[in-house]
């Protein structure tokens, strides 16, 4: 009868377990252990993402005084006020410049370093370790480091620029301030891109590189014609992650280097959310800005998948 032969069922299960390419995690019977293992991650998402997101959505349609004693439902007035605000439009433009700049700079430098690593034979582990060191530095510390290096009074790199005739002063010049935070944010994130690109280059078939070398292609030509196209999926993934990094994870660098100045030149959206909410105590506007920031990040990600993913070659 069906199901009456437990020995046969065990034999079938054993045969499936020994089939090549098949791996099965054994969590026992029932959902108890898998649920217990997933519970910590679920609680983190619940308390640090879902509940704050729901709270931000609720607060974005309310108008409250700084102490929360009076609350008024205003529908979408907070959003209308933001789009009518010159400061918010300027912050959007600054965020666009900053995010695109750090994305391109990070990818370009990481590609050059990954190519150089692929060419190094001796001391490769030391070279990789040095490049990965910035990833272990906190963003605020990285910001302070770059603020010191380019300090117009005592910074060594600023003194070199002054000797070259460049009147470097990020405290007064908006363009200098934006360049400084872009460099700091890119330097902090280059090692992240570098890890993925190095691993991606290891997956490029050696036979293709050797065949190109036999045909007379130099190292740069082989990297551009063979290695870079095969890194397409990796580069696309990193471009998406770099945009998310620029939108959400550069607050500490901005706060440590420029605090959004001078004159709002580095007041990106994520920093403006903090200033309006925790300094100016405009909770409704700050919540509306956080909702819009999440929407902008989602829109940019979808556009990247819509218009650039089709140009990526996933074949080997």
From TrEMBL:
Assembly notes: The complex is composed of two ATP-binding proteins (UgpC), two transmembrane proteins (UgpA and UgpE) and a solute-binding protein (UgpB).
Main localization category: membrane
Membrane-spanning segments: 32-50, 96-117, 129-149, 194-214, 226-248, 287-308
SUPFAM superfamilies, per database record: MetI-like (SSF161098)
Location relative to the cell: Cell inner membrane; Cell membrane
Coiled-coil ranges from the UniProt annotation: none
InterPro entries membership: MetI-like, MetI-like_sf, UgpAE/MalFG_permease
Keyword Magnesium attached: no
Family: Belongs to the binding-protein-dependent transport system permease family.
GO BP: transmembrane transport
Organism: Bradyrhizobium barranii subsp. barranii
Primary role: Part of the ABC transporter complex UgpBAEC involved in sn-glycerol-3-phosphate (G3P) import. Probably responsible for the translocation of the substrate across the membrane.
This protein's name: sn-glycerol-3-phosphate transport system permease protein UgpA
Pfam families associated with the record: BPD_transp_1
Record keywords, A-Z: Cell inner membrane, Cell membrane, Membrane, Transmembrane, Transmembrane helix, Transport
Membrane topology: Multi-pass membrane protein
PROSITE patterns documented for this protein: ABC_TM1
Annotated ranges, domain ABC transmembrane type-1: 92-304
UniProt lineage: Bacteria, Pseudomonadati, Pseudomonadota, Alphaproteobacteria, Hyphomicrobiales
Keyword Cell membrane: yes
CDD domains assigned: TM_PBP2
GO cellular component: plasma membrane
Segments for region (Disordered): 1-26
């Amino acid at each position: 009868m069906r199901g009456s032969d437990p020995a046969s069922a065990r034999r079938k299960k054993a045969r499936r377990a020994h089939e090549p390419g098949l791996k099965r995690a054994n969590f026992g019977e029932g959902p108890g252990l898998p649920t217990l293992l997933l519970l910590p991650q679920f609680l983190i998402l619940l308390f640090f993402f879902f509940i704050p997101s729901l709270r931000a959505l609720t607060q974005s349609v309310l108008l409250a005084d700084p102490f929360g004693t009076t609350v008024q439902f205003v529908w979408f007035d907070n959003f209308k006020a933001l789009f009518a605000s010159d400061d918010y439009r300027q912050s959007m433009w600054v965020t666009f410049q900053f995010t695109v700049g750090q994305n391109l700079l990070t990818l370009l430098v990481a590609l050059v370093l990954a190519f150089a690593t692929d060419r190094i034979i001796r001391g490769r582990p030391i070279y990789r370790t040095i490049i990965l060191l910035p990833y272990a530095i906190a963003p605020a510390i990285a910001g302070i480091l770059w603020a010191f290096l380019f300090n117009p009074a005592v910074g060594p790199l600023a003194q070199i620029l002054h000797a070259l005739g460049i009147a470097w002063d990020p405290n007064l010049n908006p363009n200098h301030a934006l360049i400084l935070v872009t460099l700091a944010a890119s330097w902090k994130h280059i090692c992240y891109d570098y890890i993925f690109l190095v691993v991606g280059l290891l997956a490029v078939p050696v036979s293709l590189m050797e065949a190109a070398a036999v045909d007379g292609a130099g190292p740069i030509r082989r990297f551009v014609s063979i290695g870079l196209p095969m890194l397409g999926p990796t580069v696309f993934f990193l471009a998406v992650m770099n945009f998310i990094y620029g939108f959400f994870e550069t607050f500490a660098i901005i706060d440590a280097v420029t605090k959004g100045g001078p004159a709002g030149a580095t007041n990106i959206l994520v920093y403006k959310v903090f200033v309006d909410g925790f300094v100016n105590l405009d909770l409704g506007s700050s919540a509306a800005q956080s909702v819009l920031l999440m929407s902008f990040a989602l829109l940019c990600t979808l556009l990247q998948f819509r218009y650039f993913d089709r140009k990526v070659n996933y074949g080997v």
